[in-house]
Structure to design on (1384 residues):
């Protein structure tokens, strides 16, 4: 099979670093360009920026330059802050590149949602919801991703929540479309930001809720649930950071009268083992631990019914940097290029 | 004011260690006996067992001996495994001692609940629910604790949950008595047990749910809510351990149509600042972090309404070893003896 | 005994926060002013800045104003960045205040050392080494501290190293004055700084050496060893950060032919139990753990001889925010004002 | 190239788990048997024991049975407690198997050292130092490993220390053969043992020295240094555990008068990039962090001279479970079988 020349824009953030780590092992990828902010005007060897990659990759980190990106690569991963990718994507697409965007800039179909959830007005609303654009929840949008020129890679919380409840919505097992999500994430999810609230001393032996019912991953979850089901979903969302670096688990509490068998069947139907290699559903009553998925591209889903209250508890765990970001992006890259879905991800 | 001679049985567990730390600063306490398991047949200086207490306390840790306990102390704290205190309490009470029991052995009024939740048959059912016995949720049972000879100190999860929702049940703000609790606890809550699942290497960078809807703190929560309200409460409970040593936070999701003001008023009425020195309720929308309470005897309560779903989110945080165990035990000791409620706890 | 009105300048750093925590419990202190950077132009309640202090202290954090400090307080703790205190101290002293400075600005007697180790030229060299100024290693300079108007509180590493080896230098047990220090510190030692290298995600599961043989605490260690002995000491210093928030341990490797008894005698002579309440020396072969001292004002010292190599290993452990900063500052405050040395520190 | 059938004995310890993780990715390995203690009398699927390996490996964990091992595999990795491998190895060798032993049972050539350092008398002293046995420090014993039927895989501390100083001893740069090692290890190094001193609550925010100058990895370090140089080395060793799960760094303080260039040359000569793919030596003054190597098979070595004291500081970092155990074992397996040295290790 052929080899694709690949560039990463945003190579110095946590998702960018994870993309490097994974793409180094990809049999069909040649990394050709690592771009970051203007601060890297003077190119610096990746081994200096990340000593862990010494001897494994001989490329400089350099300031982002669109022309350079387009010349160097056939496919581009964008791991940039929200609101930044938006301006770069059209040029890359016009230059015939395939783009996987890890930001939220192209996830929402309705441009009017951006001001409220992302605090910016979208610069290219004409691209939202277009045919060449796919929402990259790989397990649910294979056909669209195959044909896409641009994939909007889902948010880490959104991936975890959707992989946990979308099959239950599809099977119409959730009553009134109501559910609550109590989610806990590692701190890499907040990015490599010089922010005192993310210091080791602040977060060791701590837990902090933030953006309750205001997190920007909510609208993409609701959008996808609406697309997949007749119900109009109602979601409560309490994201929390805990003192781990990687890993995210969503505890989802959803109203249901379904039996364990009905729920297991819904998952089996959504994730046949031969076509969904990265979602592992457990038997009733076995909830995953974070450590079962950290460092992997798996999303582990467990569930337990609470008949007295009429609820199902779904625990959906993944590594926020892998299945929640760089890993799923590579999964989408594989689907786009016709490579085996798991190439470079085992 | 007088000084009380105090013994601790179970001095080598985490709650026992915290009792020592706090009682060392108590102005009206003289520690006279530290008892632990038969393993300590040969008394060993506390400074050898706990080097951190060197120079602060000159007492041996010794094997538990009922006669010795009774001779040495006027009041006894029992920080023993569930099922152990049960056998010791009657003799201590008959000897005229005041007892604060940190185990679950005397928390439930209905003896038939013990086999299901604690897996033992109660040896002294005649004591359960008696007049001289108080359930030691200090903020709600002051009068009973004042008169009690035996205080059943609440469980750590139970304290956190009850301080969060009892005022809302009392004010009849919770619809159908339904609520879910997604709780996260530090690992000291599991005790100083030689169990590989509690090793540093297993739990760093991990999160694990356990005993879903089967945790032994559930029946005391339900019992107290029933005593305080007309409703028959329905509770879902997902306890989880996270990689912190101390601290516990319960996220409580309860069905309500109340306004923020009504909820704030319910808390104000339950916790007047001059009579509930250790519960701090925050304004609507401000949820506590774990670090705000670790190492203190405070329980911090925050809440936020979700009008779309018709829920209130209550976050109730405390240190599981302090307000969730040793601190509340001392608070109860203070009330029993007529000392200022906060003596030794600031 | 009287009560002293006390101000803290630099109340929003980690040392400032620890000063608040400890001074709240001090029987002879009334906190009257919490000053910080210009960012706090609009005074903000301490409970908002530090929710953990809610209900315990009703004071605003406000922008530092010298006149306000002088009016509000009789004694001032300065917990400011290096190079900042220098400019404020003379005015405070002229206004008759007693000052405990936690920065390095007045620790070195030789002004020519500042440019090399601190990268600034000292603005008030006339104050260095003066009579009214004491180096606040409490255990060794009681008399000078009693008379001092200004105490230069030692650095955290310096305190740990000096309490470990100064007695051995005094007793002339170290050959050729040679020793190596391999020190490990918690991350609070680096301050509450918005620096990506201190993020939780960077430091969990990590260890990093820094400023090898270039750390600014070296010259004060050498200065004090020279003052106390005839030798000209030679020191190697490898400071390291480890993933803990508080606590510091120096492993000191010093050339000696002394016997365990001679070393124990040197420590006993330097730290008689009735006059050095906060240094605990262990028997030969028993090295302290970090957890034995965290949260306390103790410095625990252990030692073990290596006769084959002709070395003694000294392990000196303390809490960098307590005995290494705020606790020792209060110890010095107590000595200056004639209070019991341990007031507010148990 | 052919595929080798491989068994792991001791599959439920940390080194065994890491062997599984790595061998799953090895292009020339077929895992055929996972053996553990008698507790696994009833074979249990690996996915049940380690949910993280679900979908990746379909093998049971079963009780160790020598005949079964010999039938199932051509090569056997022994990841068993010290003193256990000793009894199994001769039968496996007689059955023609190749064996890589991760315990200390065959590391020392002098049987008289076992009682002192390992507290057992060696059952098969005739095997120690024989031709078919190699000490598996891959970078230094390639030829012997190629021919070996049994490889004694070095200890984690020993690997780190030897890779740091062996080149300097070979080049005769260390004076009087004297050096001190202040080493810090993650807690997985202590194994998956039900020991309260290894609990999360004991070790978070802690550091503990242990087995000072008595650790069992000392004699293998001394043995190898003597074999490689004329000097009789003198070593001081202070092993410490820090709150990380994986990773080990040895700070080595060695007497020298060498220049930076001479030291760099010694390393270049010992580790030519094309023949030592897993040792990365940094330029003078650049010491590695733990995170640069965790999860990899690299050993990163940095050094800095201290001319005043006449010392070189060598920092040698590796992942104790990878290069310090399972990774190096696979490196040795590769050399034994003529596979590329890095097969399965990138």
């Amino acid at each position: 099979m052929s080899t694709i020349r690949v560039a990463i824009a945003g190579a110095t953030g946590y998702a960018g670093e994870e993309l490097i780590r994974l793409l180094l092992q990809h049999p069909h990828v040649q990394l050709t360009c690592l771009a970051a902010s203007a601060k890297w005007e003077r190119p610096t060897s990746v081994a200096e920026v990340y000593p862990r990659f010494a001897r494994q990759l001989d490329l400089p980190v350099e300031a982002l330059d669109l022309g350079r990106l387009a010349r160097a690569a056939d496919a581009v991963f964008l791991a940039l802050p929200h609101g930044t990718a938006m301006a770069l994507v059209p040029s890359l697409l016009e230059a015939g590149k395939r783009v996987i965007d890890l930001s939220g800039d192209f996830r929402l179909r309705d441009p009017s949602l951006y001001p409220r959830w992302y605090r910016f007005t979208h610069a290219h609303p004409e691209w939202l919801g277009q045919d060449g654009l796919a929402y990259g929840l790989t397990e649910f949008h294979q056909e669209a991703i195959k044909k896409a020129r641009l994939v909007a890679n889902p948010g880490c919380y959104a991936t975890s929540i959707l992989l946990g409840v979308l099959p239950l919505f599809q099977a119409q097992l959730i009553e009134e479309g109501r559910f609550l999500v109590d989610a806990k994430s590692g701190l890499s999810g907040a990015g490599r930001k010089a922010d005192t609230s993310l210091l080791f001393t602040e977060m060791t032996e701590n837990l902090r809720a933030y953006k309750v019912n205001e997190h920007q991953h909510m609208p993409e979850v609701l959008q996808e649930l609406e697309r997949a089901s007749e119900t109009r979903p109602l979601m409560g969302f309490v994201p929390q950071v805990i003192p781990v670096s990687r890993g995210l688990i969503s505890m989802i509490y959803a109203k249901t009268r379904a039996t364990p068998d009905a729920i297991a069947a819904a998952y089996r139907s959504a994730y046949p083992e031969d076509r969904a290699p990265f979602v592992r559903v457990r038997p009733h009553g076995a909830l995953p631990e974070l450590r079962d998925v950290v460092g992997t591209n798996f999303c582990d889903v467990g569930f337990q019914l609470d008949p007295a209250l009429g609820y199902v508890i779904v625990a959906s765990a993944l590594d926020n940097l892998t299945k929640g970001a760089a890993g799923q992006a590579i999964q989408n890259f594989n689907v786009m290029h016709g490579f085996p879905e798991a190439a470079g991800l085992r």
